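During the no-cost extension, the postdoctoral fellow (Dr. R.K.) reprocessed legacy sequence entries with the updated structure-token encoder. One reprocessed record is reproduced below for audit purposes.
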Amino acid sequence: MVEGTVKHPNKVKEFRDNLMLSKAELARKAGISVQTLNRIESGEACRVDTQRKILEALDVKVENKNSIFS
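Re-encoded structure tokens follow.
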């Protein structure tokens, strides 16, 4: 890991897998690129707006965001 790089663990992939969605399907539903989704699933930080889009696409209420994003 590169010095100074902070990972932001999340459960996006786990939720996506449980819903049997491909990365392309989730990215399309969320209105984000597959590359962005790859970065998020690998633990890179993302904007709150992007988190909201993913939560909506996964049908998770914003008040339950901590179940996916810590």
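The helical segments are 12-18, 23-30, 34-41, 48-57. The mean pLDDT is 93. The remaining legacy entries will be reprocessed before the final report is submitted.
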